[in-house]
Recover the amino acids of this structure.
């Protein structure tokens, strides 16, 4: 087929007025001015009218399991207070609650333009069926902790490997996610790094998220240390920053996604950059916890690949009349409101090509180019090329249409397969 729209935004090249893309067998075969694409390719034309056609969004960090927790946890005084609150909330949920929450989150992502998501799977039971039930490209990372259960690290990793073996590839890959430095032990980090790389999997970890975590590992003090020092061995604390801790135990590398990275020590940005690690910023979660200013410029100057994630709705403010939704557009708008030094075009790249690179999918998703997968979204847009990037990052609500692998998954204002 050939898609035509008033504005085409490939993101690997300049915007195009009256643009078109040709699609065959789920991949893009031509991109450019509509008359050129139509002249060189056969197939029915679908005209999207006054719209901007662009790559599907790449959400580099999400917790679909927690979608139903929106508004259930008040903004905490300290980060450990929030951890305690969500542990209590989770203890009262059934498998069915988590299942429904996961599916609700997947629907929200489809409605708001995400086509690829890196999801943390805290409850792997039924994961193959959940992955098969959504057209999203779900890259599933099994979460690993072990502090409360006191289980042996090798046993935890072996169970995760067995759970992932049942998933197959479907539309996305799999990987491992040691939860955070404070909720794991060094042996688990080393075992995760070794096993993931033996399988060619990626690794993601919540890293340097809070001041409490930073103080725990740098100085053996603070509310996180006071809470956990009787629950886990703390001889790994007081030896450097959380980023240094992750490096010392083998996590950093071009296959590693450091989520948050809000609190950095002197050479942490250089350490992340030299290892080829990516950093995932979650603007609404960052705002919810009132963290210090995200060190975007330091990380960018060091050469770190930066991308965006929604995190979970358990850490999103609910100040408005309606509950928050999983929408990278809302996170892009939040980022723009907090840092005027970053252009709208650069912010959009954080949610597309940069996220693709973090997941090892550069040139495959996150851009419209010949050979890329036909993961495409359309937004209403009648202003042509003027202010197109600013309009996109401030888009509110569902997308007009969404396609994954050349198949429409959202059309005419509703997800395909839904009742009218």
């Amino acid at each position: 087929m050939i898609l035509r729209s008033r504005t085409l935004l490939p993101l690997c090249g300049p915007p195009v007025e009256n643009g078109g893309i040709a699609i065959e067998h789920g991949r893009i075969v031509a991109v450019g001015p509509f008359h050129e694409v139509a002249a060189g390719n056969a197939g029915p034309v679908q005209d999207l009218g006054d719209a901007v056609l662009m790559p599907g969004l790449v959400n580099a960090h999400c917790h679909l399991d927690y979608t139903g927790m929106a508004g259930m946890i008040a903004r905490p005084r300290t980060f450990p207070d929030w951890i305690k609150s969500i542990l209590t909330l989770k203890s009262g949920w059934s498998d069915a609650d988590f299942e429904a929450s996961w599916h609700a989150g997947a629907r929200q992502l489809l409605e708001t333009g995400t086509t690829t998501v890196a999801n943390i799977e805290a409850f792997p039971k039924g994961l193959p069926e959940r992955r098969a039930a959504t057209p999203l490209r779900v890259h599933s990372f099994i979460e690993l902790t072990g502090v409360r259960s006191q289980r042996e690290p090798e046993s935890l990793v072996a169970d995760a490997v067995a759970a992932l073996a049942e998933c197959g590839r479907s539309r996305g890959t799999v990987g491992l996610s040691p939860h955070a430095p404070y909720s794991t032990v060094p042996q688990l980090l080393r075992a995760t790094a070794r096993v993931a790389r033996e399988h060619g999997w990626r690794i993601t970890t919540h890293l340097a998220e809070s001041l409490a975590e930073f103080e725990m590992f740098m100085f053996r003090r603070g509310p996180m240390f006071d809470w956990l020092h009787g629950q886990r061995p703390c001889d790994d604390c007081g030896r450097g920053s959380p980023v240094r801790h992750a490096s010392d135990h083998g996590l950093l590398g071009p296959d590693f996604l450091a989520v948050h990275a809000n609190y950095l020590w002197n050479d942490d940005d250089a350490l992340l950059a030299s290892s080829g690690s990516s950093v995932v910023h979650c603007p609404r979660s960052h705002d919810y916890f009132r963290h210090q200013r995200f060190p975007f410029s330091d990380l960018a100057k060091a050469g770190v690949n930066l991308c965006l994630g929604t995190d979970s709705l358990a850490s999103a403010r609910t100040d408005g009349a309606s509950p928050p939704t999983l929408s990278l557009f809302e996170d892009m708008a939040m980022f723009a409101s907090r840092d005027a030094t970053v252009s709208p075009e650069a912010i959009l790249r954080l949610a597309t090509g940069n996220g693709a690179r973090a997941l090892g999918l550069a040139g495959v998703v996150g851009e419209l180019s010949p050979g890329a997968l036909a993961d495409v979204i359309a937004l209403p847009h009648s202003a042509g090329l003027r202010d197109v990037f600013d309009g996109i990052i401030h888009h509110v609500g569902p997308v007009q249409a969404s396609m994954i692998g050349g198949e429409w998954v959202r059309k005419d204002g509703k997800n395909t397969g839904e009742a009218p």
